[in-house]
Write a structure and sequence with these properties.
It is a single chain. The protein is an alpha/beta fold and 401 residues long. It is built from twelve helices and 14 strands. The strands form three sheets. The protein has a five-stranded parallel β-sheet, with helices on both faces. The radius of gyration is 26 Å and the shape is elongated.
């Protein structure tokens, strides 16, 4: 049996290479889907480990730009933060990774594909939902979930078979991608304890302050400090540069689709800067109802993506709405960054609705406005409340101010 295994180089998927080849007698090809976070040396190390474990071949797909175009751009457009805080980070990648796994499995004529998701996490739902939607006839193997070997048992099995054992990574489980880093385990098994400083990644010992200039075209970030950059490069630079100032650090305590609570720490410097800059630029160029409904639907989009519904057609409908709202979201935002703080100091755009008016807020009405018009509007807005109060008075009910 030829199996294509989604391979990260960590303990679970490393165990699977050895187990599938030696216990199941499978011919395993490993597939690493890069959604950000791997250096060139790390990619080489992952390939070497896969082959040493018994894989007959290792494949690599650079999916960073596809991830931006199909996922992250909509997270920016929708100003998506789960629980009004967490920008989804690594979880946003899983649906695309599953799709690429299915795509490569069918193109290569494999008998089955496999993943290393456990039974206790959310990723198994994301992978299985994606595979069931786009490749319902593809055989899917998930031995770590189905057999549930402990991490200690996996290390012991690998050692007994004289196979390379990946570093345990200490007491924390760390996942890094283009849109951020998530940290689990240790103190995060509680709802009250904080991580020690040394457990953080980009924001460790962050200090200082700076003002960054972010350029957008139709809602897409296109420049940093006046230098044109493709979105992937821009995000990767922001993660390092803004992270050095301690920006984008947070804790998220939320609900999984399995109905249980979970807590992680996250670092998302680029997401923090870009979402704040984008939101402020939208205030300058969109009308209130555009922003109100887009932010509401952005929350819906993020919740569904988090649940594993990346391939649901309603997501495409929401993306079409977001795309329509972004046609005028072009301009520049100046963002002050410092430890624990992102402040958008100013925005400008050729589509500025502020510049399009000759009114001066708090001082002068627009030249086409009349005092009687404002008075009539105020009375019209107040009419329902006035009638409600009057009806109560007639009925003898107590009417509160």
């Amino acid at each position: 049996m030829r199996v294509l295994l989604a391979y990260s180089g960590g303990l679970d998927t490393s165990y699977l290479v050895g187990w599938l080849t030696r216990v199941e007698g499978a011919q395993v090809t490993t597939l690493a889907v890069d959604c950000g976070g791997w250096s060139a040396q790390e990619r080489r190390d992952i390939e070497a480990r896969a082959l040493a474990l018994g894989a007959v071949e290792h494949r690599f797909v650079d999916a960073r730009m596809e991830l931006f175009q199909r996922v992250i751009r909509w997270l920016v457009s929708g100003n998506v933060r789960r629980g009004a805080l967490y920008p989804l980070s690594v979880g946003a990648e899983r649906g695309l990774q599953a799709e690429i796994l299915a795509r490569e499995s069918r193109a290569g004529g494999f008998d089955a594909c496999a993943h290393g998701c456990t039974a206790a996490g959310h990723d198994q739902v994301r992978f299985e939902a994606a595979l069931a939607t786009i490749a319902p006839n593809l055989k899917v193997l998930a031995p770590v979930r189905d057999l549930a070997p402990s991490r200690d048992e996996q290390r012991k099995w690998l050692a007994e078979h004289k196979l390379p054992v990946p570093a345990s990574g200490g007491k924390y489980s760390v996942n890094q991608g283009l849109w951020g880093v998530t940290i689990g385990g240790g103190e995060l098994h509680t709802s009250s304890d904080a991580l020690p400083e040394e457990a953080w990644y980009w924001t460790k010992n962050g200090h200082g302050r700076a003002t960054l200039q972010i350029g957008f075209e139709c809602g897409v970030p296109v420049s940093l400090g006046g230098l044109p950059l493709d979105p992937v490069t821009l995000i990767e630079r922001l993660n390092v540069e803004a992270g050095a100032f301690g920006v984008g650090r947070g804790y998220h305590l939320g609900d999984t689709v399995l109905g249980i609570k979970g807590r992680i720490a996250f670092e998302a410097p680029a997401a923090e800067v870009l979402i704040e800059a984008h939101r402020e630029l939208e205030k300058l160029v969109l009308i209130e109802d555009q922003r109100f409904w887009k932010d509401h639907l952005g929350d819906v989009y993020g919740r569904r993506l988090h649940q594993g519904l990346f391939h649901d057609p309603f997501q495409r409908d929401l993306e079409a709405f977001f795309a329509s709202t972004q046609q005028r979201v072009s301009g520049v935002a100046k963002v002050r960054v410092q430890p624990g703080s992102v402040l958008v100091e100013g925005v400008e755009s050729p589509f500025s609705m502020l510049a399009a008016s000759d009114a001066k807020y708090g001082e002068r009405a627009g030249s086409n406005a009349t005092p009687q018009g404002a008075l009539g509007l105020a009375r019209a807005l107040a009419e329902p409340a006035r009638l409600f109060r009057r009806a109560g008075e007639k009925a003898g009910a107590e009417v509160k101010p």
